[in-house]
C-alpha cells in the first residue's frame, strides 16, 4: 500500500515537472524581443531607386515611387515635406514598407524643375535613424535648374528665429503678385529660422515670407504673418576652393588637397516677419458733455487724425486737439 502511494506521488510529480517545463518553453517562444547586447543600428535608410529615375528629364508622371534598402517610416509629412513649385492641392505621400508612394494631384508646369524635399521626415522603422536632407528631383523640361538662395527669417519684434514659415519667390515682380498668384518656388524655415530655396532657374525674383494658414501660397488673410525683402533677388554662383585634410594619425597631417566647388549666392538673405494691424476703423460715437469740448471715439488705430471741415470757421485754428497714441479717442477743445 505504501509502495503504491509512493508510485502515485512520483507519477504526479513527474507530470507537474513536465507541464512546468512546457509552459516555460511556450512563454520563452512568445516573448520575442530585440536581442540584448547586440550592436545598435545607427545607419539611416539608403535610397536605392525610383520610378521615374532621380533627375529624370521630360517627365510628366504625377505618380512617383521611391525605394529604400530597409523598412522606413514618415513623420511630420505636412510640416516637413515640401514640393516646389508648390502644389495647391496637397499631394498624397504615403510609406509602404521599403517604399514611399507619391501622388501629385495638381497638374505639372511645363519646363519646370520639381523638387520634393523631405528634410528629415524619413527614418528607418526600427531605430528611427533619420535620413537627413533627402530630396527627389525631376524636370518636365530638357534640363534641371540648379540655382539656390538661402538666408534666415527673424521675428521683427524680438529678433527670434521663426520656425515653419513658408518662404517663396515670385518671378512676377509686380507688387500684386504676392496677393494674387501662388509662389513660383518655395521652402520652409527650420528651427533656427534658416531657409534654402533650391532648384531655381536663372532670373530676377522678389522674396517673401508667409505664415500660410490656408495653404494656398498667396497672402490673402490679414492675420497671416508676412515678411518681404525690399531689394530684388538675382541667383548666381561662383567657383571657390576649399582644403580637405587627411591625417596620418591624430597628430600628423598626411595630405592637404584643394578642391573646387560651386557656391551659390546670395546665401545671407535676412527677412523680418510681422503681422499687419488689420482692424477696421470706424466711428463708434461722438459726445459733447460740456460746451467747450467734444470727443470722437473710433474703433481701430490710425496714423492720422480725421479730417474736419468747418462750415463757417477755420477748423485749423478753432481747436486744441488732445489724442491717444492710437488716435482712437480724440478730444477737441474749443479755443
UniProtKB/TrEMBL annotation:
Residues 41-140 form the SbsA Ig-like domain. The keyword Kinase does not apply. Keywords: Membrane, Signal, Transmembrane, Transmembrane helix. It holds the Pfam family Big_5. The keyword Secreted does not apply. The chain crosses the membrane at residues 12-33. Signal peptide: none annotated. InterPro entries: SbsA_Ig (IPR032812). PROSITE patterns: PROKAR_LIPOPROTEIN. This is SbsA Ig-like domain-containing protein. It comes from termite gut metagenome.
Amino acid at each position: 500500500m505504501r509502495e503504491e502511494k509512493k508510485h502515485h506521488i512520483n507519477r504526479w510529480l513527474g507530470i507537474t515537472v513536465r507541464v512546468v517545463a512546457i509552459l516555460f518553453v511556450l512563454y520563452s517562444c512568445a516573448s520575442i524581443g530585440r536581442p540584448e547586447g547586440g550592436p545598435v543600428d545607427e545607419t539611416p535608410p539608403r535610397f536605392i531607386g525610383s520610378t521615374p529615375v532621380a533627375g529624370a528629364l521630360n517627365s510628366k508622371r504625377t505618380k512617383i515611387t521611391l525605394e529604400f534598402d530597409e523598412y522606413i517610416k514618415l513623420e511630420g509629412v505636412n510640416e516637413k515635406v515640401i514640393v516646389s513649385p508648390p502644389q495647391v492641392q496637397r499631394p498624397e505621400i504615403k510609406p509602404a514598407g521599403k517604399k514611399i508612394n507619391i501622388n501629385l494631384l495638381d497638374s505639372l508646369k511645363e519646363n519646370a524643375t520639381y523638387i520634393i524635399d523631405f528634410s528629415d521626415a524619413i527614418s528607418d522603422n526600427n531605430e528611427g535613424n533619420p535620413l537627413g536632407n533627402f530630396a527627389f528631383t525631376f524636370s518636365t523640361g530638357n534640363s534641371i535648374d540648379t540655382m539656390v538662395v538661402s538666408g534666415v527669417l527673424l521675428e521683427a519684434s524680438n529678433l527670434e528665429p521663426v520656425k515653419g514659415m513658408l518662404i517663396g519667390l515670385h518671378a512676377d515682380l509686380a507688387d500684386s503678385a504676392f496677393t494674387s498668384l501662388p509662389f513660383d518656388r518655395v521652402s520652409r524655415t527650420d528651427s533656427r529660422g534658416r531657409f534654402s530655396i533650391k532648384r531655381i532657374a536663372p532670373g530676377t525674383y522678389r522674396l517673401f515670407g508667409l505664415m500660410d494658414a490656408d495653404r494656398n501660397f498667396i497672402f490673402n488673410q490679414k492675420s497671416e504673418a508676412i515678411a518681404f525683402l525690399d531689394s530684388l533677388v538675382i541667383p548666381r554662383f561662383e567657383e571657390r576652393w576649399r582644403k580637405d585634410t587627411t591625417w596620418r594619425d591624430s597628430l600628423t597631417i598626411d595630405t592637404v588637397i584643394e578642391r573646387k566647388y560651386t557656391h551659390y549666392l546670395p546665401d545671407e538673405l535676412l527677412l523680418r516677419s510681422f503681422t499687419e494691424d488689420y482692424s477696421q476703423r470706424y466711428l463708434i460715437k461722438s459726445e459733447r458733455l460740456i460746451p467747450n469740448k467734444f470727443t470722437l471715439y473710433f474703433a481701430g488705430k490710425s496714423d492720422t487724425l480725421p479730417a474736419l471741415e468747418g462750415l463757417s470757421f477755420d477748423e485749423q485754428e478753432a481747436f486744441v486737439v488732445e489724442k491717444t497714441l492710437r488716435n482712437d479717442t480724440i478730444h477737441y477743445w474749443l479755443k
